[in-house]
Amino acid sequence: MTTQSPPGGPIDTSVPHSARIWNYWLGGKDNYPVDQEAGDAYAKVYPDIVHLARASRAFLGRAVRHLAGEHGVRQFLDIGTGLPVEENTHQAAQRVAPESHIVYVDNDPLVLAHARALLTSRPEGATSYIDADLHDPDGIMDQAEPLLDFSRPVALMLMGILGHINDDDEAVQITRRLLDRLPPGSFLTLYDGAATDEAFVEAQEEYDDTGAIPYRLRSPDQIRGFFAGLDLIEPGVVPLHAWRPAPSPAPPREVDGYGGIGRKR
C-alpha cells in the first residue's frame, strides 16, 4: 500500500540543492547541471566526498536490516529522505520483513515528486510520504502518528540531515522532541558528516558561501551527544565504515562520517 501527501511547491533549478548534489555523488540521474557543477567543485577540494556519500548509503542499508532482522522493528520514520537511489529504507526493511511500514519525510518538492513515482511498497507493508520541515518536529509527528502505530517501537531515522540545523542546541532539542513522541523500545538511527578532515571543512565552507542551504559539520563527540540517554547498540557511535561492516577481503575505507543506533528505554 502507498499513501501520498499533497504535492509541494515549484522546483528551483537555479541554485544547487543538497539532495540533488548527494544524488549526483551517488551516481543518480535526478540532478541538474547546477548541482553537478557544485558537486564537482566540492570534490576538487575534498575528493573523499563521493566515497563518504556511498559509505553513508551503505550504512543506511546495514542499519535498517539490523533493526528489522535483529530487533524486530517493523516501523520506520525516515526524516530527510533525499532522492531515491538504490537500497532505500523501504527496500532494505521489506527485504527482511515485507510487512514493514515506512513513512518518509521531506520538504523538497523534487524529492516528494520522485518519491511518489519511484518509492513503492510490498503489498504486505506500506509506504507513506509527508511534506514537512525538520524545524517543526511536532508537526512531523502529528502527521506521522496516524500512519504508524505509536504504541509499538518505531525506528526514527535522521540520516545526514541534522547538519542542516546550524544551531547545536536546536538540533539536540529537535531530536529530543521527536524521540519524546515515540514509545519505549524505539530506536534512533543517525549519521552525519564529521569535522575530522580540514579539506572536508574547507569544502563545506566554500559550498555554504555559494548561498545554498548550509550544512554544519560537527565533531564526533557532538554527534554522540544526540544519543544521550539512549542505550547504544554495539559498536556504538563510530565512523560509518566501522559500524558492523559487511564481510570483505579488504578492510573498509575510512570516511569522515559518524553514526550509530540507540534504543529508547
Automatic annotation (TrEMBL):
Annotated region described as Disordered, given as residue ranges: 244-265
Pfam families: Methyltransf_19 (PF04672)
InterPro entries: SAM-dependent_MTases_sf (IPR029063), SAM_dep_MeTrfase_SAV2177_type (IPR006764)
Residue stretches spanning the membrane: none
Species: Actinomadura macrotermitis
Name used for this protein in its record: S-adenosyl methyltransferase
Tree of life domain: Bacteria
SUPFAM superfamilies: S-adenosyl-L-methionine-dependent methyltransferases
